[in-house]
Amino acid sequence: MRRARGAGAVTVVLMILEGFVLSGCAAQPPVPRAASSPAAPSRATSAPPAAAPPLAPGAAGPHQAEAQKPVDVYAADRPGMLSPVVKGFRSLVYVPNSESGTVDVIDPETYRIVRHFRVGALPQHVVPSWDLKTLWVNNNQGNFLTPIDPRTGKPGRPVPVEDPYNLYFSPDGKYAMVMAERNNQLDLRDPHSMRLLHSLSMPCRGINHGDFTADTSVFLASCEFSGHLVVLDWRTPRVIRRITLGGTSMPQDVKLSPDGTVFYVADMARHGVWLVDAATYKVIRFLPTGRGAHGLYVSRDSRLLYVSNRNEGSVSVVSFAKRKVMDVWRIPGGGSPDMGGVSADGTKLWLSGRYHGVVYVFDTRNGKVIRTIRVGAGPHGLAVYPQPGRYSLGHTGIFR
To answer: What mean pLDDT value characterizes the chain?
Structure first.
């Protein structure tokens, strides 16, 4: 979701928006008939499997399932499959503190903060570049990106960029795709200099998260403040279709299923995820997970989807094969799990605690919270880095 909330909210406009969200979330809205219930889930865990061979970019899409079996868009993300580019990088966790205007860097072995530095106004996400060589801090209100050298963990000279709420990269590495949320634009920029190349106006409000089809030709993005999804041909660029989820919806993170057939879209106001057909872009059904469904993360074996439920302090574990909730991990005493990532070996899930000024570390083998680490105010889109994968599609770490 967009701005950090709680104490220290940034503007009056944001406070108004917060009031809208709270009123919209006061009661569970109607759910489509096909929705299933997460009641009485069974224990689900994720054990790192043997490495699978990587797929070439664009090698398989929903319409090519018969030509190449099995399709797994995350086949290059298995434990140990680090790119030669990152093999010398120190493993660290980068936490942007939206309300503090800072970044905390955590050693995942000791769980201690090893570096702390100021960036700009309202840092939202830390995003790995397409070529894996740079981490970009999205300073949303500051209107610039702060580069971090992942070899050292140190920040570099800021680069001016208008309204960088979130950042993605085209699958061919040609474009940096800036989700200019308040401007309702998708800005295509040079991935190195960040010079503006194209700007595409959106037929919706609050574009902020997305993912690509398996054949990488189409980008599906969520528009939080109007309850829409937009289907984009990023090469042209043009909007192909707008999907209406409804006025009470607030779509958040987007993640493609490993077989490339379904997009999962978190909806913070409807408290679950939408399943959208990746070939026809039709809504299949709604799956309740928990209050404030927000971030989506794929297990290293491509079997499970972790859904952070920010408003109830839990993580729902969804089976891709069964398309249902198999388990719910709860934070003792409650919390506000937001954005993050899975460790390189797949045994830990790192999530920021948006309203509590902490980072949570879950053991993916049993669902227990093994650490709670105090950081700055309003921690948001943290990045675990490096991670396996040949190239980055952006956000806090979508690798293929």
So the answer is: 87
Quick: pLDDT tens for 97-151: 999 999 999 999 999 999 999 999 999 999 999 999 999 999 999 999 999 999 9
**Total-model pTM:** 0.85
Contacts of 103 (CB under 8 A, 6+ apart): 94, 95, 96, 97, 116, 117, 119, 123, 126, 137, 146, 148, 155
Name the nearest CA neighbour of 73 among 263, 302, 268. 302
Long-range pairs, 132-138, Cβ under 8 A, ≥24: 132/83, 132/85, 132/86, 132/386, 132/389, 132/391, 132/392, 133/85, 135/94, 135/383, 135/385, 136/167, 137/94, 137/96, 137/103, 138/96, 138/164, 138/165, 138/166, 138/167, 138/381
Position 69 scores a pLDDT of 62
CB neighbourhood size of 107 (10 A): 15
C-alpha pair distances (Å), 174 with each of 30, 187, 218: 42, 13, 15
Residue 16, pLDDT > 70, answer: no
